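Thread amino acids onto this structure.
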């Protein structure tokens, strides 16, 4: 099963839009506080400087920052296909 993690911070418009779209598409995700020191260090180590950071599994190809609705929709389709199998 695919695990989606959203590293988010309070009062972040793009973070809120990302979570709202994931919720609307019924994509389960784990919400992580990007301001927690170990989370902040991890996303910086991966080269991300903007919130939210979305990580789907461990592949660098499935990680991004900012609100990216097309990528969220792709993930929703992938999870739907996994669940149908």
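Threaded sequence (85 positions):
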């Amino acid at each position: 099963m695919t695990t989606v993690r959203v590293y988010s911070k309070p009062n972040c418009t793009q973070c809120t839009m990302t979570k709202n779209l994931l919720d609307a598409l019924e994509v389960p995700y784990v919400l992580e506080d990007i301001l927690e020191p170990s989370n902040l260090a991890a996303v910086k180590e991966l080269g991300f400087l903007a919130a939210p950071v979305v990580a789907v599994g461990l592949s660098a190809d499935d990680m991004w920052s900012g609100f990216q609705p097309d990528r969220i929709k792709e993930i929703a389709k992938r999870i739907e296909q996994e669940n149908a199998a």
